[in-house]
Amino acid sequence: MPICCIRALGLAATLLFATSAAYPSAPEIAAAPEFVDPLPASRGFDPVVPFEPRARVELGRVWWTAPRAESVKQVAERFGIAHDDLRALDPSLADGRVAAGQRVLVYRHDPAAPSRSVGAPNRGRLEHAAPFPEGDGWALRAYRPRTWATRHVVVELAASIAEWRERFPEAQPVLLGEFSRRGGGTVRPHRSHRSGRDVDVGYVLLVPPAAHKFTVGTPRTMDAAATWGLVQRLLASGAVESIFMAESVQNQLLPHALASVAPERLPSVFSVLATDPRAKKQAILRAWGGHDDHMHVRFACTDDDVGCRDAERRKKGKKKKGRSAAKRRGAKGR
């Protein structure tokens, strides 16, 4: 539906979980966004697409439709929810079984319990998280204990992908990978993803993958125009702090960025164009190993995130010093 038509409707929809089907999946209900004020800027970075109203998705409840008969315990494990918490959310689960096709409530927004990112992405936790819902334009894994984030992140990412989908209706759906656990904390093998602000997003592919697995972005596999369109929407949201992306992928996106980013601004967006190490670390798109098959999107802290802060650097010097002191003590003992 064209943006102008959706804006005229002025609707706000609750996103629902659809049946967990093979990729690509069709949504049970697509979001009908409500349009609000023009795009804000994030940390002094001017939006790539300025002065354009954006979709805002209202996330009140999230449902999931069971593809097969399961116990309530199995459903709870699928989403990383305590058994008793899931039954409290949905009293219809009192008999302990879920029938194939049955809709299960896995999240309800409670205004009295604000969703917050606490601490650093690599040293933090998550309070009152929201699960990412099904929708047109993206696909999630069937097993979802790591698809939780702050409610703000879920809403902003869903809105950005919905806007992108309107501009690229023929593109392949985006694969979504790791978010955070429901309460945050360690997500092995990642060092981050602990506080509900990190999301792994696959590059837009030319053909759907055989399974829900990220694919290295090359000229043969990646739809560079659609991928830049997605990055553009993420940056324009004003909610993104940084995106970690391989240099090889950045180079493929550059030709498409020339039409919407002024030449003098390109180095502040693409680290591959930055002239010195400091500038590379301050670019929005930052080169980082292991991100040639997906981008790691880190959302910025909000005013509601108590104690939210930047990622902490590992104190290698202290660790080495501690080991040396231990060795000296051992030598004295001998």
Word description of this protein:
The protein is built from 9 helices and 16 strands. It is α+β, with helices and mostly antiparallel strands. It has one domain: Muramoyl-pentapeptide Carboxypeptidase, domain 2 (2-Layer Sandwich). Strands 13-16-14-15 form a 4-stranded mixed sheet. The chain has a two-stranded antiparallel sheet with strand order 1-2. Strand 7 (116-118) and strand 8 form a beta hairpin. The longest helix has 18 residues, at 316-333. It starts with a helix and ends with a helix. The model is unreliable at 1-51 and 318-334 (pLDDT under 50).
Give the SSE map:
Elements: H1 3-9, E1 34-38, E2 53-56, E3 61-65, E4 70-71, H2 72-79, H3 83-89, E5 97-98, E6 103-108, E7 116-118, E8 125-127, E9 130-131, E10 138-139, E11 148-149, H4 151-167, E12 174-175, E13 198-202, H5 224-236, E14 240-244, H6 247-257, H7 266-269, H8 277-282, E15 285-286, E16 294-299, H9 316-333
Parallel strand pairs: 10-12, 14-15
Antiparallel strand pairs: 1-2, 3-6, 4-5, 7-8, 9-11, 13-16, 14-16
